[in-house]
Design a protein that fits this description.
Layout (H helix, E strand, L loop, with lengths): L1 H19 L10 E2 L9 E16 L2 E20 L5 E14 L2 E2 L3 H4 L2 E6 L5 E5 L2 H4 L24 E2 L4 E8 L7 E15 L2 E18 L6 E16 L4 E17 L8 E16 L2
Length: 282
């Protein structure tokens, strides 16, 4: 029973984290990318993810599947003189299913989040995420840190097909040291998506994880690797993401030092393959 609860807790933590993590004009290769905001605008997008893998605790392995679905409603509350928008966001009808069992997540549905976003996509002053952290029971976890993962930060000026840029983000690890990661973007040209002229942007995310925690009195070390690749279609006229998708593996190993001073002892091992789809509803 204890091991099952441990698996459930680990998967629920991962799910809430990913909820915030709540994707033809081929001859035209040049574009200027910036987000556009208008006070009072309301938009919705759907997010779906499927995770399949296994969790091994003290040598005993159990397969699992996880599905999440969610609609995010966002309203532009105001836009200042610098073009920075204050946006209110809420989650509508979020669902979480682990190995066929639906898990209540009232903390997500009841959350009301506000953040500020600049025309280049940079996000700051995220408020209202405390309810999301509650189920994890970890004071160090702040979901606001991962809001920047919801879309690219664009470079200034026009770009041409093949241009590349990077974005550095902080990934919060509940109860452990945060991890710094880099996302690589490539502008792949223009396409018509859902009747809209869109920039096609490829992204890749590959980071090693090595974080420790000693607060509990026992030294814990989390080691692993996360990889993700996909495509974002950004509407050039509407100034927002139209569609995005991606997939990749996540490997994690929770370890404790051996008493004899040898190699660390592996207590929990997680192997997951993640697929996600994101699409605007207007």
């Amino acid at each position: 029973m204890g091991k099952t609860i441990g698996i459930r807790t680990a998967l629920l933590s991962s799910a809430l984290f990913l909820f915030l993590f709540s994707a033809s004009c081929a001859s035209l290769s040049k574009a200027t990318l910036d987000y556009k905001f208008r006070e009072g605008d309301v938009s919705r997008h759907t997010y779906q993810t499927t995770q399949k893998g296994s969790v091994t605790i003290d040598g005993e392995s159990e397969d699992f599947s996880l599905q999440m679905a969610n609609t995010v409603r966002q309203k532009v509350h105001k836009v200042d003189d610098q073009g920075v928008a204050t946006i209110d966001a809420r989650f509508e009808d979020p669902t979480l299913t682990i190995s066929g069992e639906e898990i209540p997540i009232p903390e997500v549905e009841q959350s009301r989040i506000t953040y500020e976003m600049s025309g280049d996509g940079s996000i700051q002053n995220v408020r209202g995420t405390h309810g999301l952290a509650g189920p994890l029971g970890e004071r160090q976890f702040d979901p606001g840190q991962i809001f920047q993962l919801q879309g690219p930060i664009f470079r200034e000026g026009s770009i041409r097909k093949g241009d590349k840029w990077q974005q550095t983000v902080t990934i919060p690890m509940p109860g452990l040291d945060n991890v710094q990661a880099t996302i690589d973007y490539t502008y792949m040209g223009r396409e018509s998506v859902n009747g809209k002229d869109a920039a096609k942007i490829g992204f890749s995310f590959d980071t090693g994880i090595d974080a420790t925690n000693t607060e509990s009195g026992e030294v814990l070390r989390l080691v692993g690797r996360e990889q993700l690749q996909g495509i974002v279609f950004f509407g050039l006229k509407v100034g927002k993401t139209i569609k995005a998708s991606g997939s990749g593996p996540l490997e994690l190993s929770l370890r404790t030092p051996s008493e004899g001073g040898g190699e660390d002892l592996e207590r929990i091992k997680v192997d997951i393959n993640i697929d996600f789809n994101w699409e605007a509803q207007d």
